[in-house]
TrEMBL record:
Molecular function terms from GO: DNA binding; DNA-binding transcription factor activity
Protein's UniProt keywords contain Transferase: no
CC annotations in GO: cytosol
Every HTH lysR-type domain range: 14-71
Keywords, alphabetical: DNA-binding, Transcription, Transcription regulation
Similarity annotation: Belongs to the LysR transcriptional regulatory family.
Polar residues compositional bias, start-end: 318-331
Name of a matching Pfam family: HTH_1
Protein name: LysR family transcriptional regulator
InterPro entries from the UniProt entry: GbpR_PBP2, HTH-type_LysR_regulators, LysR_HTH_N, LysR_subst-bd, WH-like_DNA-bd_sf, WH_DNA-bd_sf
Organism the protein comes from: Paraburkholderia antibiotica
Superkingdom, taxonomy of origin: Bacteria
Length: 338
């Protein structure tokens, strides 16, 4: 059979129900749970998997006592199945929105540091211009939004590349830098300290992003430069909202974007510690899949992001020239650098 004939035969045999089963198996690594997820009986799911593996001509999973583990070729196949299913789902949702008289949809992944300023202003303007456009926002950290972009679950992302090879798959257009602050609750014993060092802080409880996020990588690099180990009392949390709730309820320290904690600082719920950190964190920007055209709502959204980014840049430049004789941190408090 020629290579073309084999490809046609594979396409003719595969169904989207098969792809849904593969994604469910990838999520659960358990045939019974995957069958429940796609609403079929386990024997039917077992036959479906057998049909899929016969169509491909190789095993997708190794079966063992602990469950199911994807084979090397299975990993590649599962990645395709997830992307194809996500694309079909988004197409169906977009079609349904238009059928009901809407103007399509835009799905964006965004880090939380971009949300209070660039994202919020751009979405508000876009919705004012196109009230019937369905806008969906997903993700919180760069590793999350890059994964969503790779799986085709979003149209574009606001974030950072998270490894050196991702430039092969994604285009990156820088937009802005993030000011990171070390924050504690207002009643924390360190909240009134005029000066503090990173060495003193590692003995306190911490709430930090997962090790796959750029902010956490930067935090670990800062610790390494200071000759310090990762805090022993550390809670990993990918949710910014949950991190803020934890900070308000016990004496933990966290490194968060200024834009995210701004209102909490102004309201007196949190206090920024006088220690500069995170200067080497790369700026965030627009991430898109290479060689893939964007729909009109996505193009307009990018245009708005660029415009608001330029405006914020001018405002920042103006703020820093008002009184350059007294360097301050974002909150107007002299920054003590250790």
């Amino acid at each position: 059979m020629s290579q073309y004939s084999a490809a046609v035969a594979l396409v003719n045999r595969l169904k989207f129900k098969h792809l849904a089963l593969l994604v469910a198996l990838d999520d659960t690594r358990n045939l019974h749970q995957a069958a429940e997820a796609v609403n079929v009986a386990q024997p039917s799911a077992s036959r479906m998997l057998g049909d899929i593996e016969e169509a491909f001509g190789f095993l997708l999973f190794e079966r063992n006592a602990r469950g199911m583990t994807p084979t090397p070729l299975g990993v590649v196949t599962l990645a395709y199945a997830r992307r194809a299913l996500a694309e079909l789902t988004r197409f169906a949702e977009d079609l349904e929105v238009k059928r009901r008289g809407g103007h399509g949809q835009l799905t964006v992944g965004a880090i939380m540091g971009a949300a209070p300023d660039l994202l919020a202003m751009s979405v508000a303007t876009l919705k004012t211009e196109s009230p019937l456009l369905n806008v969906r926002i997903l993700g919180e950290t760069s590793d999350q939004v890059v994964q969503l972009l790779h799986r085709r679950e979003i149209d574009l992302a606001l974030g950072r590349l998270t490894n050196p090879l991702q430039h092969n798959d994604f285009s990156f257009e820088p937009l802005a830098r993030e000011t990171l602050l070390l924050v504690v609750r207002a009643v924390h014993p360190l909240a009134r300290r005029a000066r503090i060092t990173l060495r003193e802080l590692v003995d306190w409880p911490w709430v930090a992003q997962p090790v796959t996020s750029p902010a956490r990588v930067l935090f670990e690099e800062e610790l390494a430069r200071a000759g310090l180990a990762t805090p022993v009392n550390l809670t990993e949390c990918a949710s910014i909202f949950a991190t803020l709730q934890l900070l308000e309820n016990y004496d933990a320290v966290a490194m968060l974007p200024e834009s995210v904690v701004r209102d909490h600082l102004r309201g007196g719920l949190l206090v920024a510690l006088p220690l500069e950190i995170g200067k080497s964190l790369a700026g965030f920007g627009i991430l898109t899949r290479k060689e893939e055209p964007l729909a009109e709502p996505a193009l307009r959204f990018i245009e708005l992001l660029r415009g608001f980014s330029r405006n914020l840049g001018r405002d920042t430049a103006l703020d820093t020239t008002v009184d350059s004789s007294h360097p301050t941190d974002t909150l107007g408090t002299p920054a003590a650098i250790s």
